[in-house]
Amino acid sequence: MGAILVDLFVAAALGMVVVGSTGAAYSRGPLARLHFLGPLSLLAPPLLAAAWTCQGGSFADTAKCWLTALVLILQAPILTHVAAHAHWRRRHPEPRTSPEELGP
Amino acid sequence: MNAWAVAAGSILLAIAPAAYLLVRSSNLVDWYVAMQWAGTLGVLMLLCLAQVLGRPGFIDLALALALVDYVSGLLFITVIERWL
Questions:
Q1: Domain region containing B20
Q2: Does A47 reach chain B within 8 Å, measured CB to CB?
């Protein structure tokens, strides 16, 4: 039963990787690519960590695996937001005002 | 060959489109997206390799890569937004 669960979790994580990578590869533009990297960063890590848990092993290794998944889950929305913000700022730069326009 | 080995090999193959995007695109934000993409896949691949090779030390590498990926990503995007 445990081995089947491990295979299921690994297959699900691999499915997320395939879907995310294929979508990102065929998308046009950074924003569309960022949408496809979501499931890759948010769903695949906990699925792999769950597979680690079902596989059995030392508690420390399993905990580190979950910690790695947690780091990926927490960082993904932040990095996606800053990337989208940077893309938007590059397309809509702030108007620069000259010192003469600012006045004394 | 177990599921972990198949997953590690497939994830390694999935890094190829990210590398292609990095080489072909001239958009800096695209470079950043490719970096984030490859970094996440690298972390997942290290987790699989730890199981395939029976070397739990690879989990430490994966954790370190995830943290470095986060910090370097923020630095890179800050440089893009402010100076480039």
A1: 3-83
A2: no
